[in-house]
Amino acid sequence: MEGAPHIPLDFQRLDEAQMEAAAETALKRFQKRRTVRHFSTEPLPMDVLRKCILAAGTAPSGAHKQPWHFCLITDTEVKRRIREAAEKEEYENYHGRMNEAWIDDLKPFGTDHLKPHLEEAPALIAVFRSSWSPDASVSSGKAQHYYVQESVGIACGMLLAALHECGIATLTHTPSPMGFLADILGRPAQEKAYLLIPVGYPADGCQVPDIQRKGWDEIASEYGLEEAH
Ligand code: IYR
């Protein structure tokens, strides 16, 4: 390939038994992941959080632009300000901006406009997406980014998976609109808040909704003519 240096892929081929075992382990582990809304205030090891964020930063992205930024927040006053701003928006959401069907759909989860977890969780990870980055070498002064939503969504999925693997519970929180996050955190104009993730250990006695997950037939279809053997 002209112009672009390439290096050999570092890839470890597994045998089929190893693949089966890895798939089983991954499924069992992922089935145990639950969204948590009640956190212990106990601090988390910060280096574990930093490594999970670095793991998320290995996600694929459009033209490898890596259009994400992760703010790792443990400061009590910053968390308090985020809670205050989120609750203000959520009050409007629960009292008029969300329609009746939406409010009904959320009843099993017991959510409301109050967000104590934004202060109780020992850390918040605010994820930003950037639609461009400053670049003096292009005439517009802005390097384009591509498939930003997809790229940042994948990075967030990898972040949740990495945190879960490390025994850390998460809440994927989307207070909306989320513009207050860029203001409070002083993010540059090209960045828009994408997701706010309180992280921590579950509070003692933490309960979660008794939900079922869709099965194979509901989430997947196969188009092979026969078993590949
Ligand atoms: N953002 C609000 C409402 C909310 C919306 C959905 I869709 C959820 O799955 C959960 C909550 C809130 O955080 O309460």
Description of the structure:
The protein has helices spanning 16-31, 46-56, 76-97, 100-106, 117-120, 148-165, 179-185, 216-219, and strands at residues 68-73, 123-130, 132-134, 142-144, 169-170, 191-200. The chain is an alpha+beta fold. The chain has a domain at 35-186 and 196-203: 3-Layer(aba) Sandwich (NADH Oxidase). The strands form 2 sheets. A 4-stranded antiparallel β-sheet has the order 1-2-6-5. A two-stranded antiparallel ribbon has the order 3-4. Strand 3 (132-134) and strand 4 (142-144) form a beta hairpin. The longest helix is centred in the middle third of the chain and has 22 residues, at 76-97. It is globular and about 55 Å long. Bound molecules: 3-iodo-tyrosine (IYR). 3-iodo-tyrosine binds next to helix 3.
Brief sketch in words of this structure:
The protein has a domain at 35-186 and 196-203: NADH Oxidase (3-Layer(aba) Sandwich), CATH 3.40.109.10. It is 39% helix and 14% strand. It contains 8 helices and 6 strands; from the N terminus they run H-H-E-H-H-H-E-E-E-H-E-H-E-H.
List keywords for this structure.
8 helices; two-stranded antiparallel sheet; globular; four-stranded antiparallel sheet; binds 3-iodo-tyrosine; NADH Oxidase; 14% strand; alpha+beta
